[in-house]
Amino acid sequence: MKSIAFTHSVTAIASALIASIMTIGGASSVQAQNAEHLKALLENHTCQRCELSGIQATGANLRESFIDVADLRKSALSGATLAFSTMYYADFRGSDLSNTDLRNTFFINSDLIQANLSGTNARNSRWKYADLTEANLQNANLIDIELVYAKLNRANLSNASLRNASLYGADLTGANLKGADLYRADLTSANLTNVDLSQANLCRATMPDGSMSMQGCLLK
User: Fold this and answer.
1) Domain boundaries along the sequence of the chain
2) Residues near 40 by Cβ (< 8 Å), separated by ≥ 6?
3) How far is 110 from 91, CA to CA, in rounded Å?
4) CA 30, CA 131: separation in Å to the nearest integer?
5) Contacts 24+ apart (CB under 8 A), 191-199
6) What is this structure's pTM?
7) DSSP assignment, residue 210?
8) N-to-C CA span, the chain
9) Among 121, 127, 125, 124, which residue's Cα sits nearest to residue 101?
């Protein structure tokens, strides 16, 4: 059971954020609706068909949220906790998700174009068909992640840990994989056009043609 102090804290945060929305441009019916959407997300961790673009929720605890067909474009969620959340067709384009806790999340057909995910922990997540075009995933923990058929065109994956990751059929055209750790990663049928893998660890990774790479392995 949540403590009274915790409940009051969440309510205070929700009230403050709602007030900030209501003071921008007047309390229109649309803004009132958005305020209710925000309250539902912060208090109940549920957001279905929400209109919440540009929200400021840095460090918010949104663990185990259910987000379905929601507009969260250009939102500030740095340091937030979204672990064990499920997100269908969520729009996070241009959002700041740096240093967020995204462990064990489900991003299905979600839009993360140009999102900042640097330093995020998305270990053991399932991000099928996610669009991460030009997203910043530098230094991200992507161990055991599933990025099947994901779009990672021109994404920054430098120094990211992709150990045991599944990138089956993913489009990595022009992606930056400098210093990335792809130990035992599955790149079967992935598109690696214009990708420099010379500085990536590909030890025992399955390459697009089905062969196994030994690049980066410490051979005796």
Assistant:
1) 4-108
2) 46, 47, 50
3) 6
4) 28
5) none
6) 0.84
7) S
8) 56
9) 121
Cα distance between residue 200 and residue 216, in whole Å: 8
The stretches in the chain having pLDDT less than 50 are 1-13, 16, 18-30, 220
**pLDDT tens-digit readout, 100-129:** 999 999 999 999 999 999 999 999 999 999
Please state, in angstroms and rounded to a whole number, the distance separating the CA atoms of residues 84 and 81.
9
C-alpha span between 154 and 161 (Å, rounded): 17
| Phi/psi-derived region of residue 4, left when phi > 0, alpha when psi is between -120 and 50, beta in every other case | alpha
pLDDT of residue 218: 84
List, in sequence order, the alpha helices (H) in the chain.
Answer: 4-22, 29-44
Q: Could you count the other beta carbons within 10 Å of the beta carbon of residue 161?
A: 21
On whether the CB atoms of residues 158 and 177 are closer than 8 A, the answer is yes
DSSP, collapsed to helix, strand or coil, labels residue 19 as helix
Total residue length of the chain: 220
pLDDT for 144-157, tens place per residue?
A: 999 999 999 999 99
CATH class of 4-108: mainly beta
Starting at the edge strand found earlier in the chain, the sheet holding 86-88 runs: 46-48, 66-68, 86-88, 106-108
